[in-house]
Amino acid sequence: MAVYTEVSDEALRAFLAEYPIGELLAFRGIAEGVENSNFALKTTGGEFILTLYEKRVDPGELPYFLGLMQHLASRGLDCPQPVPARDGQALRMLAGRPAAICTFLPGVWPRRVRPQHCAPLGDALAQLHAAGADFAGQRPNALGPAGWAPLLDRCRAEGDQVQPGLVAELDAALAAILAEWPAAGMPQGMPQGMPQGMPIGQIHADLFPDNVFFLDDAAGQPRLSGLIDFYFACTDLLAYDIAVCLNAWCFESDHSFNVTKAHALLAAYQARRPLSEAERAALPVLCRGASLRFLLTRLYDWTSTPAGALVTRKDPLEYLRKLRFFLRAEGPSSLGL
């Protein structure tokens, strides 16, 4: 369970007294997630999600995350909206942690991804990118290419205990990926290190199935009801967000890549925002980079999570298999384009 910080009944009631959302009816921890402590909250005013932001989250970045969610929702994207307290502020302190309450989205995330899920996902991702185009905030991607080598260095001592030879294989993959990564530059007003020649904007950067909710329509087909968990969102290549989704949504339980799912995702995305030629050409290396990013963060968590932490660690070797696939992939057509 992703609960790092416990909240006493007394502290919770004092916290909720600052909000015009009614009396507390129910409160429980949420198992999903690895970064923050999340709780389902029910009051006489409705259902909400309470998040306590843990030590790996920079409190100075929280206004960006909360502001982005408010902005996207105002542009018609279905995503949580921060709930302001009576003083108008959405961000407060609880149990020694920054905390916020957000609106609850109905729906369930797909435990078994089908191609019918991938087209709505692609459309929603393009909608997110379009809705964020006029958002004034910016946040560099702390888990982008510049962060991968330092993260790998933090895993060196114990990495080969997960699989013999793993660190050397990741060293080689990292060097190959960085050698092919789109050329760096700094378009006006953007953070240092942003690649030139490809569209840049606000991306989710962590749009896994458990961050996308669906409801069935009248015909029994999945209808996307909302996107959640924007706490890795940042200002980066829009196509990198697509690469993250191809990693997260388009592999089967036997580790094979499902090109039908990928094509459904990409076709729906391009119906709303066609990819440039530069984006199409870069997609294979962006997929390799996305595989490596999640492999490294999972490897770090696998080797460093305290024994008593109430969190389910995720297998880093799942992403080693995906990385190997993308390293072998020959051109955008092999990815469903």
Walk me through what this model shows:
There is one protein chain. The chain folds into two domains: 9-103, 2-Layer Sandwich (Phosphorylase Kinase, domain 1), CATH 3.30.200; 115-335, Aminoglycoside 3'-phosphotransferase, Chain: A, domain 2 (Alpha-Beta Complex). The strands form four sheets. A five-stranded antiparallel β-sheet has the order 1-2-3-5-4, covered by helices on one side. Helix 4 packs antiparallel against helix 5. Mean pLDDT is 91; it is low at 184-195. It has helices spanning 9-16, 62-74, 115-131, 145-162, 166-180, 238-249, 259-272, 277-304, 317-328; strands at residues 24-29, 37-43, 46-52, 92-94, 97-103, 184-185, 194-195, 200-203, 212-216, 222-227, 234-237. By secondary structure, the chain is of the alpha+beta class. 41% of the residues lie in helices and 16% in strands. The chain has nine helices and eleven strands.
